[in-house]
Amino acid sequence: MIDVAVTGAGGHMGREVIEAAADRDGVDVALAVNRTSVGPVAGVPVEDEADLPALLAERDPDVLVDFTLPDPSTRYVEACADAGVAAVVGTTGFSESQLAVLADAAESVPVLRAANFARGVAALRRAVREAVAAVPSYDVELTETHHNRKRDAPSGTALTLLDDVDEVREERDSSPDADRVHGREGEQPREDGEIGVHARRAGDVTGEHELLLAGNHEVLTLTHRAESRGVFAAGALDAAEWLVGRQAGEYDFEDAL
Ligand SMILES: NC(=O)C1=CN([C@@H]2O[C@H](COP(=O)(O)OP(=O)(O)OC[C@H]3O[C@@H](n4cnc5c(N)ncnc54)[C@H](OP(=O)(O)O)[C@@H]3O)[C@@H](O)[C@H]2O)C=CC1
Ligand SMILES: O=C(O)C1=N[C@H](C(=O)O)C[C@H](O)C1
Questions:
Q1: Class of domain 119-225
Q2: Matching CATH number, 2-117+229-256, of 3.30.565.10, 3.10.28.10, 3.40.50.720, 3.40.630.30
Q3: Which of 88, 112, 147, 238 is the most buried (most CB within 10 A)?
């Protein structure tokens, strides 16, 4: 049995995680916090996030699962490092300096961060790397679609897929994202090697990512569509179960699969 702490417990993903944990053997939610006051979620009382450091010391959970925003997320992971609690981070949109804070925390505790906890996206990443390696000269365009509440663009998953493309094309070292063109407008002919990146926001779309490769009179598209947030919550809990007992360090969802 592992004891999990959930931050952002009143948010869409925090609620999904608590509900998924309630249905899963071997996982108990020992602590749930939120910024604003909300009632119990799946019978778990939700406490004030300002008290997180004291609550971590008192309840001593094995692992914290966070889906919030970059600012609170970095604070929560720092609190985990102080309390000796592992952290699974699903939040996206971190700046380089916030990522450095997470890396510091990972010197004390295991920290697993992933922009997407859907197993299908893990498979998509492998397929993308393979496809780009097979047709390296083809044009690449990436389109992601999300609900109209989403704050960060492009999505964390889109950025991960772009890094995967760059890794195969071995362009990371020189200038990681110089090849990315975000939308196009006016006179803007496509340049060799550029990757068009398109972020759509509409309605309540859970999350879709499509990588298009085209050249030589053919088009290949690789698409993932999440049909429920439950897939992300299930993956995050799989990651949490895997992470407990690991050495301090930074991990990715692929490590846990
Ligand atoms: N890795 C993955 O698989 C997935 C990642 N995500 C990512 O998870 C994150 C959350 O998504 P989602 O649940 O849809 O978002 P919601 O807007 O539904 O929830 C956000 C949560 O963060 C809290 N929050 C917002 N601002 C602050 C603050 N300043 N201090 C403390 N807490 C704050 C909110 O609290 P309050 O209720 O008080 O506003 C709420 O609990 C996003 O970064 C998203 O991209 C989403 C799905 C899957
Ligand atoms: O904000 C969301 O909802 C999602 N965010 C993640 C991202 O930024 O990639 C993952 C998923 O697509 C849903």
A1: alpha beta
A2: 3.40.50.720
A3: 88
